[in-house]
Design brief:
328 residues, Ubiquitin-like (UB roll), 3-stranded antiparallel β-sheet, 9 helices, 12 strands, 31% helix, rod-shaped
Length: 328
């Protein structure tokens, strides 16, 4: 009777080392090296693709994929070393997490800056602002003059006509007031300096800004024409219109009830030169004869009508009562 083979053990134990640590796993008798690899993946979290076995003696290094069904029972008497990185070392090799890209707001369109306009405004302007420090509250006078300098309408006409004024200053009312007239503005040497009457005659306040701005328009026209002839009045009227239309703060509209004399009414007025070296023209309110006057001579409506009536009566007297005169 033939001898029967001894029964296979119910389990077999495989021992291996990994980075100096010994591990032992039990397997069914028919298990292969692929089962050992899967067990290591599950138990030690080392993926199969990272596993290599150094089996000695004789077998050497076994690499994945473990397609050769090498029985584990043949390895029980051998030394098995698992050559694989630890899970911690694998984690250290992983790329760092990428920072979350913040949501970027769409870039606001860059406002186009007109550099030519910027250069022109720096060139065609008032080089010096000069209030009279010996009069009360010169700081307010400076603010008034700076407001005129920075007025959008004034800046636009300065650029258009290439006006450049050396000094913009205020006028002492006491020095330019007589019983018959009040000088509102002076221009010296066609733009060397412009002097404006900012204050009331009693020094207790300031005149209306629009009136002073129209005076400045008159004086700017004297940068080109000294005499109050037709050419002067046409330029003065054009400057006044340009300033009003370019004043975006007021919407390009007149904002008061002032009455403006037409250039035709003012034509023929001679240039006024005072004894203090000023030349090129003055803006005078209330001059003799009614026809001596200024660009944009401003009165309220009642005063304008009364003035026109006086002139009409004067012309009628001179003509011996004949003729109808100019209408108000």
């Amino acid at each position: 009777m033939a001898e029967q083979a001894p029964p296979l053990p119910e389990t077999l134990q495989i021992t291996f080392t990994h980075h100096g640590t010994s591990h032992s796993f039990n397997f069914p008798p028919e298990s292969t090296i692929a089962d050992l690899s899967n067990r290591i993946d599950n138990e030690l979290s080392i993926p199969t693709t990272n596993q290599k076995f150094l089996i000695s003696p004789k077998l050497g290094i076994i690499k994945p994929p473990f397609t050769d069904p090498l029985p584990l029972r043949t390895l029980q008497s051998k030394k098995i070393v698992l050559l694989a990185p630890t899970p911690a070392s694998l984690a250290s090799l992983a790329p760092p997490p990428q920072p979350t890209t913040p949501t970027l707001k769409p870039a606001a369109p860059t406002r186009h800056r007109d550099w030519q306009k910027t250069r022109d405004e720096a060139t065609y302007t008032f080089d010096t602002i000069l209030p009279l420090t010996y009069l009360p509250n010169p700081a307010r006078s400076r603010q008034f003059l700076e407001r005129l300098r920075d007025d959008p309408g004034i800046k636009a006409t300065m650029r258009k006509h290439k006006f450049r004024v050396g000094v913009l200053t205020e006028m002492n009312p006491a020095e330019h007031t007589t019983h018959e007239s009040r000088t509102l503005g002076l221009n010296r040497n066609r733009g060397e300096a412009i002097e404006l009457r900012l204050r009331t005659d009693a020094y207790d306040g300031y005149r209306d800004y629009k009136i002073i701005r129209d005076t400045l328009c008159h004086e700017l026209a004297h940068n080109v024409f000294g005499d109050h002839d037709r050419d002067f009045w046409e330029l003065c009227k054009a400057i006044e219109k340009e300033v009003r239309e370019a004043d975006w703060k007021s919407g390009g509209r007149a904002v008061s009830d002032e009455v403006f004399y037409d250039a035709e009414e003012r034509e023929g007025s001679g240039a006024h030169v005072d004894g203090g070296g000023w030349s090129g023209g003055e803006f005078v309110l209330g001059g003799n004869g009614g026809r001596q006057g200024a660009s944009s001579r401003i009165m309220n409506r009642r005063e304008a009508m009364a003035k026109a009536a006086e002139e009409r009566m004067s012309r009628q007297r001179d003509a011996g009562g004949g003729g109808s005169g100019a209408s108000a």
